Amino acid sequence: MADLAISIVIVSRDRPDFLRRSLRAVQQLDYPLFETIVVACPPGAKIASACDGVRVIVCDAPNISTARNLGVAQALGEVVAFLDDDAVPEPTWLSHLANAFADPKVAQAGGTTLGRNGISVQHAAARVDTSAVTHPVAWTGLAPGILESRADQYHPRLHGTNMALRRSALVQHNGFDERFAFYLDETDLTYRISRAGGQTVFVPLAIVHHSSGPSRFRASDRTPRSVFEIAASTAVFHRKHCPETGRNAARAAFISERRRWILQHMQRGSLPPDSAWKLCRDLIKGYAEGTKRLHVPSPPFPHTQNGQIPVRPVSSQDVALVTSPRKRQPDLMRAKSLAARGHRVTVLDYDLTARFHRVTFTDDGFWLHTGGTFGREMRDEPMFQFRSRTERVRRTLSRLVGIRSKKVLLTDV
């Protein structure tokens, strides 16, 4: 099958450093036929403009649906993939998502999103009901497959920082509903597409690392700063999808769950009582405001765009460096140098402890794995594992085949 042309749309607001790191990771994708469109506030647009081959749209409106629609309108690809500015994709991410669209009946696809430690799963296969409650789906194995709806109430839910949709489906369904200024915007769209009969594929190996950066809605430690738009978007979702007879119960369940979440932060000491009570009041105000939001259709997207995405040469080498305390600094400098030359670099830095493992994509453009030789890498492993350093490295490299690299083993040059 010929490679599909894909447009990656990244929306960014007030997080230029996160955006810079995300774009570095996108430049290391092993897929040959894609473009990158960044829709950002002025500081983010300045960062994106300095990157070769990135198309930039300045948007200072604090509305993620508006920004995403601007990106879709300019997309040249047959498929549009979405990534957040505080997320980085594994090099094979786009290749795995592209394969899902070999079947013309597939309208949308999503992958596995990992949390800030680079190991634990944040989002995977899931469905959402008419009350906007997510129901995880148990998925066996690493093969992609159709994520079916259940009855008329449970439809596939994709995560906005790790999903791809046919542009024709986006056009047909008028893109993102701009009443969702933040939260549930992608859930509403993918729900509508699925309910109309579009097939959804879950692709386990299409992996994105999501660091959940700070924003006007949350602090860097995930302490909530504002819940008004979360509540407003939930109200819009309930009005659109929840039967009228169930809306009061859906509202009550949402308010109760969010209040409990806010009070847990207060009990942990991350929220002072005054801030917690203000957030609880904003839940009520936001939900009430959301029930009044009138639907204003977005301007229709052009069915096609003039232009062609050029094929990118994918010639980078996949490099693995196994370091130790004695040579850590020289190896990290070497990794930085190799990444600057366009190589995809993984550094394995394991000490003789039982520390849990972490995976990060550094600002210098390489992947860094840290932890103990005897520690737990995958979260379903035993807390302590007696194994040699060589065996630990071998297991990690084996696990990364098909994720970090398509090759059987990463190569140290």
Helices and strands, with pairings:
Blueprint: E1 6-12, H1 16-26, E2 34-40, H2 42-49, E3 54-58, H3 64-74, E4 79-84, E5 87-89, H4 93-100, E6 106-114, E7 121-123, E8 126-128, E9 134-136, E10 145-146, E11 155-156, E12 163-166, H5 167-172, H6 185-195, E13 199-210, H7 228-241, H8 247-268, H9 273-290, E14 318-323, H10 328-340, E15 344-351, E16 358-361, E17 367-372, H11 389-400
Parallel strand pairs: 1-2, 1-4, 2-3, 6-13, 14-15, 15-17
Antiparallel strand pairs: 4-12, 5-13, 6-7, 6-12, 8-9, 8-11, 10-13, 16-17
Write up what this structure looks like.
The chain has 413 residues and is α/β, with parallel strands linked by helices. It folds into 3 domains: 6-210, Spore Coat Polysaccharide Biosynthesis Protein SpsA, Chain A; 228-290; 318-400, no CATH class. It has 11 helices and 17 strands. The chain has helices at 16-26, 42-49, 64-74, 93-100, 167-172, 185-195, 228-241, 247-268, 273-290, 328-340, 389-400; strands at 6-12, 34-40, 54-58, 79-84, 87-89, 106-114, 121-123, 126-128, 134-136, 145-146, 155-156, 163-166, 199-210, 318-323, 344-351, 358-361, 367-372. Strands 1, 2, 3, 4, 5, 6, 7, 10, 12 and 13 form a 10-stranded mixed beta sheet that branches. A hairpin with a 5-residue loop joins β8 and β9 (134-136). α1 runs parallel beside α2 and α8 (247-268) runs antiparallel to α9 (273-290). The model has no long low-confidence stretch (mean pLDDT 94).
